[in-house]
């Protein structure tokens, strides 16, 4: 360690340049992970952050909400066995207009007072008999404000915005919550059916699973059945894997070239008695110190940059995610530096000194 720190201090400019390159690679990894996780969250924020633990659909729907149509009798039986731990949900895709501007959204019917009734960050929540709507806060970027009137196309029915809620996006679209009774009035062709019944306890899920004609899905399973979610996640995960592999390859080549450049120096140190083990330990320690400092700087810069990104940009990066990615990058850097140890062991002091002179 002493030899490593002494070399870092002696070659300050070179150390800064190496650290800068590792910082840029780590910054790129953190930003792309934030963007890919942001896209995933934007696709299914409603299901990811819902208090529900399970969802019930018809057996033939395969877990896809839009293919499931639970009759009022089935909903009554589910609520009879699960009590207040069960609440029906109905959803439909909608086109809304605000003035001359058209907006897309998911119209969702919920029971006021249930655990799926969204909390209003601004305004008021839905209440029994309400004909207004609580909408996702992302609609603010489209100019929607509290008290605005949204018009459903092409029917022309109107919804007054009475509140804004957060983390209510589905299929990359904002969710517009209305009472279940109002939703059924707006969708008469569905004959008072609902798409799913949400459950929020394991006991309720076990009792609901005993009923005929329905299937109980965990929240994770329902998430995977969301149309397009699995395919999008596959692409995003592949992007993250390739990103880590490319970063590992770049760091390995970078550290290897640096080691080769120091061959005469290693030969001289071996000639005056330094062992291969001492030189290898010095190299690994030097790379680890540089990598940890560079990754720490990149993590702090990324968290600062995230606060400056536009509100509408899907970007999700939590501190645990940053810590996990940082640990992975440091491990990759350590492994990359180990690949250079073979060249140190093969250094012949006489040849290396001769090459330097």
TrEMBL record:
It comes from the Bacteria. Residues 238-349 form the ABC3 transporter permease C-terminal domain. It is found in: Cell membrane. InterPro entries: ABC-4/HrtB_transporter (IPR051125), ABC3_permease_C (IPR003838). This is ABC transporter permease. The keyword Repressor does not apply. It comes from Deinococcus depolymerans. The chain crosses the membrane at residues 16-35, 237-258, 279-309, 321-341. Its main location: membrane. Keywords: Cell membrane, Membrane, Transmembrane, Transmembrane helix, Transport. It is a multi-pass membrane protein. Signal peptide: none annotated.
């Amino acid at each position: 360690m002493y030899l490593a720190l002494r070399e870092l201090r002696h070659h300050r400019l070179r150390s800064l340049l190496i650290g800068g390159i590792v910082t840029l690679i780590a910054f790129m990894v953190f930003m792309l992970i934030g963007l890919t996780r942001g896209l995933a969250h934007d696709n299914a924020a409603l299901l990811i952050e819902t208090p529900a633990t399970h969802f019930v659909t018809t057996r033939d729907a395969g877990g896809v909400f839009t293919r499931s149509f639970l009759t009022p009798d089935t909903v009554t039986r589910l609520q009879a066995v699960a009590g207040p731990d069960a609440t029906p949900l109905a959803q439909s895709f909608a086109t809304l207009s605000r003035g001359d501007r058209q907006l897309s959204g998911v119209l969702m019917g919920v029971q006021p007072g249930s655990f799926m009734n969204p909390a209003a960050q601004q305004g008021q929540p839905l209440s029994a008999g309400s004909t207004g709507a609580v909408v996702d806060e992302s609609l603010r970027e489209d100019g929607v404000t509290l008290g605005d009137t949204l018009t459903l196309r092409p029917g022309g029915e109107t919804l007054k915005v009475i509140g804004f809620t957060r983390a209510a996006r589905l299929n990359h679209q904002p969710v517009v919550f209305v009472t279940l009774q109002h939703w059924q009035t707006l969708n008469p062709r569905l004959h008072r059916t609902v798409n799913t019944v949400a459950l929020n306890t394991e006991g309720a899920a076990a009792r609901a699973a005993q009923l005929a004609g329905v299937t109980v899905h965990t929240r994770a399973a329902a998430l995977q059945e969301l149309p397009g979610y699995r395919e999008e996640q596959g692409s995003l995960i592949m992007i993250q894997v390739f990103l880590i592999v490319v970063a590992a390859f770049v760091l390995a080549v970078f550290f290897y070239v640096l080691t080769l450049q120091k061959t005469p120096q290693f030969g001289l140190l071996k000639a005056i008695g330094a062992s291969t083990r001492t030189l290898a330990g010095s190299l690994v320690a030097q790379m680890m110190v540089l990598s940890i400092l560079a990754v720490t700087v990149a993590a702090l810069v990324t968290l600062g940059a995230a606060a400056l990104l536009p509100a509408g940009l899907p970007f999700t990066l939590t501190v645990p995610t940053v810590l996990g990615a940082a640990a992975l990058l440091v491990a990759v850097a350590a492994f990359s530096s180990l690949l250079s140890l073979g060249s140190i062991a093969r250094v012949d002091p006489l040849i290396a000194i001769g090459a330097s002179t």
